[in-house]
Amino acid sequence: MSLTKFNQETEYINRELSWFKSVLETRIKLYFKGEQTPGDLFTPISPPKLLSVDAPYTELVQRFNLQPAERLILILSVIPHLQPHLLDTFFIQNQNLNRGYTEFGGLTGDSHSGFLPTAETAMFLLAGDDLTARLQYHHLFQPDHILFTQGILTLDHQHPHEPPLSAALNITPEYRQQLISGKPYTPTFSNEFPAQKITTNLDWPDLILDPATRQDIDDILTWTQNKDFLMSTWQLNQRIKPGFRALFYGPPGTGKTLTACLLGKKSGLPVFRIDLSQVLSKYIGETEKNLAKLFDRAQQQDWILFFDEADSLFGKRIDSLTSNDRAANQQVSYLLQRIEGYAGLTILATNLRTHLDNAFARRFQSIIHFPMPGAKQRLHLWQDTFLNKPFTVAEDVDFETLAHTYELTGGSIINVLHYACLKAVNRPLQTINPDDVLNGIRRELAKEGRLESQTAENNIPAVAKPSSMLSLSEKALWIGS
């Protein structure tokens, strides 16, 4: 947030806080005098005029056309984070009962010593004990009100069977940070939020894929950039379900995660990778609860959801022989339901498409194969990874030979780069030589269990002669194609 915008935001919030104090003082005086509100409370105490649409608070009020009662609820939810002492008035004790006033609502925190407002607190400010006014404002606390459907506020019920207005009134972390600092909020990875934001320093031209795969990815990008126009203006929402569901399948290291990151980067949407090991809970019902929180937040913020290694969750459903089987099937069914109802982009990645049953596959708009790169793509990957970089590569490193000799993924080539740089960095000339690259390849083949089998298959001895005496082509044969 620029200094000018920050000053505007500070001035506007200060004006809103001053207005809140006037409303609070008036309500307390009227209540203890036993007087009814003189007409509309907001007529004598009107909210401040909006200043600038550039400041986050003002922009929020204008975007959702918040009325005085809604603005009062909003600023009430913000006060514990900015000036909690403004709510100390609510600690007044009822001398007759030697306790706080029920009408004020409110909670006390575990570590926060101030007053935490509930929906009852907001209702008291709006209506006092006027039953007609309370009924008039009741709709403001319903789940379908814009303050809650847009993910601005939440009503957190600690005890579901207690009166609904006893729920804690909270501003969501996303809007809290946006209004206070002007910066986007990124949730912290935890058991309750089993997802992590992923990004990349690469750009769209760096995505090296098979042409058919690239065309399918371009189609997804077209959807992310035109979804509102397609669904509303062209009225596709009358025929198809919201959102776009894509399945990426192929060997590890072929670019599935990178593609998801670049789709987000190109479309300006955050990408969150879901840790399925955290989602899957041994406690029945916990999985659904974690997923509900995740999808609700994603829906409000328009995230791209990337389920990596999805075969661990979306495998073929099994017969319900035991309670564990039934719970697992229930988790899959719930996830299918949430994915189908999600209006954003959902990507599932798996190594093997065969792990997904046909009924589940039909729910995808796009099923995209990420094959092992061919020789042409591998050459591009080698050159893009090693050339025109701050480090030096020896002239006798023949990338064309490497590309045609070794069937490696982009991920494996990056691992070779990492290994080669570690070997070169401590040398006086800091130059990557052919042995660095070839030994890196040897390590990658050994990881995949392909080194010994390929060497035996081609009847090539493990060491024919010292590596320094071999040409690059001979070295390639020495390692095994």
What would you say this structure looks like, in words?
This protein is α/β, with parallel strands linked by helices and 481 residues long. Helix content is 47%, strand content 10%. The chain is built from 19 helices and 14 strands. The strands form five sheets. Strands 7-9-10-11-8-12 form a six-stranded mixed sheet. Strands 1-2 form a two-stranded antiparallel sheet. Strand 3 and strand 4 form a beta hairpin. The C terminus is likely disordered.
Question: Top keywords for this entry?
Answer:
alpha/beta, two-stranded antiparallel ribbon, 481 residues
Task: Give a brief description.
This protein has about 475 residues and is an alpha/beta fold.
Low-confidence stretches: 454-470, 477-481
Main beta-sheet strand count, sense and barrel state: 6 strands, mixed
Report the portion of residues in β strands. Answer: 5-15%
- CA(first)-CA(last) distance: 55 Å
Q: What class do helices, strands and sheet pairing give?
A: alpha/beta
* Alpha plus pi helix count: 19
Strand order of the largest sheet: 7-9-10-11-8-12
Task: Report helical residue fraction.
Answer: 40-55%
Overall mean confidence score, pLDDT: 86
Number-wise, the strands total 14
Instruction: Indicate the overall shape.
Output: elongated
Estimated radius of gyration: 30 Å
